[in-house]
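ugh ok fine here u go
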Amino acid sequence: MCRGDVNGVNSDKIKLRLLIRDEIAALPDDYIRESDKANLLHITSLREFIEARNIMIYHSVGKEPDTVMIAEAAFTSGKTVAFPYCYRGGIMEARVVTSLDQLKPAMLGIPAPLNSTAVLPPEVLDFVVVPALTYDKSGFRLGYGGGYYDRYLPKTPAFTAGLARQKLVRDMLPLEAHDVAVKCLITETGALRCFSETDNTFEYKTR
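structure:
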């Protein structure tokens, strides 16, 4: 996955990142395990996930919501699975893998595809799992500060889903002009759809 703090971002976000990181570190292991199991059930039950042919998912690390189980479920169901491949300067590609063995530690030690893997164009993605430190109840994310997904997501029509621990979800996060909500927020308590659906079009919640 592509993460990394940069200078010059909103100061409120910088302070909140530090606070959230402390809260994540304090989460008990039993809560993490139960949350991961529930997240897996909720995301794989989504109609959009079931119907998706091409998905992009990041590889979780540490106490992030587990994505390995979700990737394995996608492989088992015959989906084309891509993981982010990152370049310096906030540039990211979706690269196809057929097993987790094709992931190796890359930027910041986070598992990423080999550079010999095929690129999946953003316009053919059906479903993207978007990383974040946490989300708010409208589906806006507190990212890691690298800006990779802010640049990438406008290029794809994919259904976007965020994973979070319910204990970390905020009522409202500080927003910048480029921030866009995910279409669905998944926590251990269920799936919260962050858009209204009319005639198969999506209208993002905004504030």
